[in-house]
Structures are given as structure tokens and as C-alpha cells.
Write a structure and sequence with these properties.
- InterPro entries: RloB.
- It comes from Glycomyces rhizosphaerae.
- The chain has about 100 residues and is mostly helical.
- The chain has helices spanning about 20, 35-40, 40-45, 55-60, 60-80, 85-95, and strands at about 15, 85.
- It has a two-stranded antiparallel ribbon with strand order 1-2.
- The longest helix has 18 residues, at about 60-80.
- The relative contact order is 0.21.
Length: about 100
């Protein structure tokens, strides 16, 4: 069923979702491949397991992650290189901080 006037937005991360997780703990300004992005969260969370994410590990750093993601996006608009993520928009929307439909 189509919904008239509704806009579908994607929360894409390049090279992968782990970039979003990593941004909770550090800046990621240089190009990043999937293998490194998937491994680096363990530097901050030794028990990191993608299949068992614990929100309490990331939530205290959410504001930092959003700031870092916005900074990446600004650079991405100019260079079109990775890394970049749009997950911050979804998080803001779900938390009530972003624009609501």
C-alpha cells in the first residue's frame, strides 16, 4: 500500500553499521574498510558482540556519536568518500530530538 505524501528515508552507514557504534567512542575521519570497522569496537568494548548489542554500552555516548556523525556528513558532502552514516537521524527521530513527521 502506498502512502501519499510520506517520505522514506534510509539510515545507511558506509562502510557498515559498526561505524555508527564506533562513533560513540572515537572520531573516524579517515577512510575505513568493513574489516577494520567491525573489529575496532572491541578496542572500547572487549566483550563486543554484534549479535548481542547492549544499549547501556552506547547510550551514554550517544550525543558524541551524533556530533561525530554530523561532522562526517558535512565532509562526505564535499568528498563523497567513506566513512559516513545517517543512523544519527533515526536515533534523533526515535528519541524525539529530531524533526517529527
Amino acid at each position: 500500500m502506498a502512502t501519499a505524501g510520506k517520505l522514506i528515508q534510509l539510515a545507511v552507514s558506509c562502510p557498515c553499521f559498526e561505524l555508527w557504534l564506533l562513533l560513540h567512542f572515537e572520531d573516524c575521519g579517515s577512510e575505513l574498510n568493513q574489516k577494520d570497522a567491525r573489529r575496532r569496537p572491541q578496542k572500547h568494548l572487549p566483550d563486543y558482540d554484534k549479535s548481542a548489542l547492549r544499549c547501556e554500552d552506547f547510550h551514554p555516548h550517544q550525543t558524541d556519536a551524533i556530533k561525530r556523525a554530523k561532522k562526517l556528513e558535512a565532509g562526505h558532502r564535499e568528498t563523497h568518500l567513506n566513512p559516513s552514516t545517517g543512523v544519527w537521524r533515526l536515533v534523533e527521530r526515535l528519541s524525539g530530538a529530531g524533526p517529527q513527521p
